Amino acid sequence: MKKILIVDDEPNIVMSLEYTFKKNNFEVFIARDGQEALDILKNQLPDVIILDVMMPMVDGFATLEQIKKDERLRHCKVIFLSAKNKEKDIEKGLSLGANLYVVKPFSIKKLVEQVQDLIHQGTHSTP
């Protein structure tokens, strides 16, 4: 079973993503901010991390910087999911190492497809 970590402080988004990914046979972990995500990542190695940018405590950009420093998490695919839709925010997210940057509002169906594509790429790519 594939694992996904959803990091967002908006309960409606978290609930709908959790429901949808569980329906698609994912084991789902939830964090409400970057620090909680980093704590979960000490014990879990998800295939994909969906990461909001604007969160209390540790924001998404700082969270991704920490993730990229951890050798164990190198294989994790990261998707930013954010209302920050300025070109400079998107560029920053991608330059920090995110695989995708999806702007809110978003299509859950399309997001699930993008996650599946990322996982599929990861299993068939050469190092």
Task: Give a written overview of the molecule.
Pfam families: Response_reg. InterPro entries: Bact_response_regulator (IPR050595), CheY-like_superfamily (IPR011006), Sig_transdc_resp-reg_receiver (IPR001789). This is Response regulator. Helix 2 runs parallel beside helix 3. This protein has a five-stranded parallel sheet with strand order 2-1-3-4-5, sandwiched between helices. Helix 4 links the parallel strand 4 and strand 5. It is globular and about 35 Å long. It has five helices and five strands, in the order βαβαβαβαβα. With 127 residues, it is of the alpha/beta class. The mean pLDDT is 94.
Enumerate the spans where pLDDT stays under 50 for 5 or more consecutive residues: none
Question: What is the H-and-E element order?
Answer: EHEHEHEHEH
Q: Strand fraction band?
A: 15-25%
This entry's quaternary arrangement is single chain
How many alpha or pi helices?
5
What is the tally of beta strands? 5
Structural class: alpha/beta
Average pLDDT over all residues = 94
Backbone shape: globular
As a whole number of angstroms, the C-alpha radius of gyration is 13 Å
Order of strands across the widest beta sheet? Answer: 2-1-3-4-5
